[in-house]
Amino acid sequence: MERVSLDFPLAAVIHRHSLTVRVTDMNYGRHLGHDALVSLLHEARAKAFMALDLPEWDMHGYPSVVVDLAVQYQQEARFPDALVIETAVPEPEGKALTIYQRVIKADTGDVVATARVNKLLLDLAVGRPVAIPDALKQTLADARGG
């Protein structure tokens, strides 16, 4: 079986978001369900970009769309575990904005999951992707501390 293996770019972290596993996030195995994990990742990603005044629906004039998602599950989390989701965005290349997220147990530092999302910014007038604007690149570089 081929498994997804993701390397989290720690130097590219732009935000950390704390949350708690809710009872409604549990699946039949009594641990954090995959569907709930994707929702928690989305919330943390939205909070990360909002903290930079970059809502995902208006990133320097363009809405963004997810074009793919990969998740590497590494450990179970259960209700009411406290988690931290780190969001990292390396220097964009081409038209894709690649976003990594790492879910960590707050008390132990154990990694629950690592995820990668690729997003594109769209010009709605023509329905096509656009290059990542320089202003967005600069905002992300500043958030990374460089």
TrEMBL record:
Q: Which PANTHER family does this entry report, sorted A to Z?
A: 4-HYDROXYBENZOYL-COA THIOESTERASE FAMILY MEMBER, NOVEL THIOESTERASE SUPERFAMILY DOMAIN AND SAPOSIN A-TYPE DOMAIN CONTAINING PROTEIN (0610012H03RIK)
Query: What family is it from?
Result: Belongs to the 4-hydroxybenzoyl-CoA thioesterase family.
Family matches, as InterPro entries:
4-hydroxybenzoyl-CoA_TE, HotDog_dom_sf
Question: What name has this protein been given in UniProt?
Answer: Thioesterase
Q: Per UniProt, which keywords does this protein have? A: Hydrolase
Q: Which SUPFAM superfamilies match?
A: Thioesterase/thiol ester dehydrase-isomerase (SSF54637)
